[in-house]
Specification:
Layout lengths: L1 E8 L2 E8 L4 E9 L3 E10 L2 E9 L2 H12 L15 E6 L10 E2 L2 H9 L8 H14 L5 E5 L9 H4 L6 H6 L8 H15 L8 E6 L3 E7 L2 E5 L20 H11 L3 H10 L2 H6 L5 H9 L3 H25 L4 E5 H6 L1 H7 L12 H6 L4 E2 L8 E4 L4 H13 L1
Parallel strand pairs: 1-6, 6-8, 9-12, 12-14
Antiparallel strand pairs: 1-2, 2-3, 3-4, 4-5, 7-8, 9-10, 10-11, 13-14
Bound molecules: adenosine-5'-diphosphate.
Adenosine-5'-diphosphate binds next to α10 and α12.
């Protein structure tokens, strides 16, 4: 069964075609820097790599470009679109409406549209992808895999904000948590690497990419998650502030006469390690500047490390213990420095990094010292595989 996985969101469109249930990749690719004249289209198939730079205005254009390329005779990934048996879509947010993956019908489409407010950057491109496929392949089953479904069962005292309860009842304002598809993969893969039953593990997972989320996992499910009503809460992220006293935000808005929309943009797009350092949202550039002695880069890194350690301690306490710390994401999988700093001076929690294993790691594996009771694991996350698995399980 050929499953086309579409991850259309933020400033990129990623896709993968997988033969299921074997999980064999037929082709994959992505369009980056959407909305610019130098957008990049990457395509991998049959040991071939294609890279094209061209103007791609929006998600619709990117998806159409991907689809047109797949059936080009010289590329021959697909003879025609009918070869696609199922389409799996990543959808970021549907409020409290779905607790698991669902077959897409008109009601699901309407619910995703009704949730635009909850994820303004992600839900519209998610829906665009669904609409394009519905037009091209009207009879093909499509599955929506929700990014926050993984956190659907967090307890009421974890999801509740201490504001008048009527705002939850009226507007569903609560903690939802994000990066669920990645945590689904991370927790399964970490258990495999540790050769343990995941239902018996207490895991502290750090998804560190452009967006960052910490997760506490116990009894085989998500128990706590640092991103909240939106992805803004929690860890220091590339351009998002993470935790901040809401009163500080109100104070700044009054003092500097900042509008609601502008403050929204500052907190989501101008903050995080980019905002502190003034250098870049690209973590590699922050590390380079730090290594050259830049003090603001050092402050940005120290702030991010401190926040991650604070969550580690808090989540260890509320889980009643810890078996492993799990890293994934562009930063989590690649930054030796950040992993070393986050795992430093934690011997009192029985967490001890093996610095050599950390430095020499290729791909994924265990990087804790042999005598560390809590293991440290790096996982190469693969959201598309999770979406393909969920889609497959929905239709068979
Ligand atoms: P997203 O999918 O959320 O856009 P990724 O998980 O791809 O993000 O992570 C992107 C981040 O990973 C960027 O900030 C990038 O700088 C960082 N990154 C990638 N490689 C490295 C590396 N070798 N060292 C440090 N950071 C890295």
């Amino acid at each position: 069964m050929k499953i086309f996985v579409l991850n259309s969101g933020g400033s990129s469109v990623k896709f993968k075609i997988l033969e299921m249930p074997a999980e064999e990749e037929i082709a994959s690719g992505k369009v980056e820097k959407l909305g610019s004249s130098d957008a990049i289209f990457h395509l991998n198939y049959n040991n071939n790599k294609l890279k094209e730079i061209q103007e791609i205005k929006n998600h619709g254009e990117a998806i159409n470009l991907i689809l047109e390329t797949l059936i080009k005779p010289e590329i021959e990934i697909l003879n025609d679109y009918e070869e696609i048996d199922v389409v799996g879509h990543r959808v970021v947010h549907a409020g409290e409406n779905f607790t698991g993956s669902v077959m897409i019908d008109q009601e699901v489409i309407d619910t995703i549209r009704d949730s635009f407010d909850l994820a303004p950057l992600h839900n519209p491109p998610n829906l665009k992808g669904i609409e394009i496929f519905k037009e091209i392949l009207p009879g093909t089953p499509m599955v929506a895999v929700f990014d926050n479904a993984f956190h659907a069962e967090i307890p009421d005292y974890v999801r509740t904000y201490a504001i008048p309860y009527k705002y939850y009842e009226k507007h569903a304002v609560r903690r939802y948590g994000f990066h669920g598809i990645t945590f689904n993969y991370m927790t399964d893969r970490a258990a495999e690497i540790l050769e343990r039953d995941k239902n018996e593990l207490k895991l502290f997972s750090l998804m560190l990419g452009s967006g960052c989320t910490a997760n506490a996992f116990k009894n085989g499910k998500s128990f706590e998650v640092s991103t909240g009503f939106t992805p803004l809460e929690g860890l220091v992220q590339s351009t998002r502030s993470g935790d901040i006293d809401p009163a500080a935000v109100l104070y700044l808005m009054r003092k500097e006469n900042i509008s609601i929309d502008e403050m929204d943009r500052i907190l989501n797009s101008e903050s995080g390690w980019k905002g502190i350092s003034g250098i870049s949202n690209d973590f590699r550039k922050i590390v380079e500047a730090y290594q050259q002695g830049n003090e603001m880069a050092e402050l940005a890194i120290n702030t991010a490390v401190h926040r991650a350690q604070k969550y580690l301690g808090a989540y260890t306490a509320v889980m009643g213990g810890l078996d492993a710390v799990v890293f994934a994401g562009g930063v989590g999988e690649n930054s030796v420095l950040l992993r070393e700093k986050i795992c430093s001076d934690l011997e009192h929690l029985n967490i001890k990094l093996d610095k050599k294993l950390n430095q020499n790691l290729e791909g994924e594996g265990i990087i804790s010292a042999a005598d560390s009771r809590v293991k440290i694991v790096v996982v190469n996350t693969d959201e598309e595989v999770v979406i393909a698995r969920e889609s497959y399980n929905k239709v068979v």
